[in-house]
Amino acid sequence: MSKPSVTCPADGSRIVSDGSDTILFGQPPDILKALLLEKSPGFNTLVLTDIREKGGCLTNNLEFPIYYFLFVINGLAEGRKLNLVGDETHISQAVRLLRLTLNGPVESELKACGTEPALMKEWLEVADELALKRADGKVIQVEEFFNILPFQDDVVELDSLS
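-> structure tokens emitted (162 positions)
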């Protein structure tokens, strides 16, 4: 195993790479801009940090790194999954937020908010139309983009790094 290299693409984040695994720690809002400016070759793992907010900004914004993974480095086209590492509760919350931002709310959530039936129908149709889909037309659920790896006794084993 080669000695890992560490870079800092944006405040609040680090990329650690050993040639096999490339891990992005922390996902501040400006991470996408930093990755694009650096022409980063990508990553195969995201680690949600235990510091969730810094200076009023959420540090585990998954929207931009997942867009980068899916569309810039072709994870979606190649059918690859991104390793998502973190505390089980934090992973659940981040994935739920990502599901809302990518695929929109589901019927039960709209009902719980007291959404009028006609408006609910319209929003669900729009969400379905805009959602990412497989070749067969079925919506890709957000969880399908990830290999979810919660910490077990503060450790997660990857192929070459732990």
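The longest helix spans residues 88-103.
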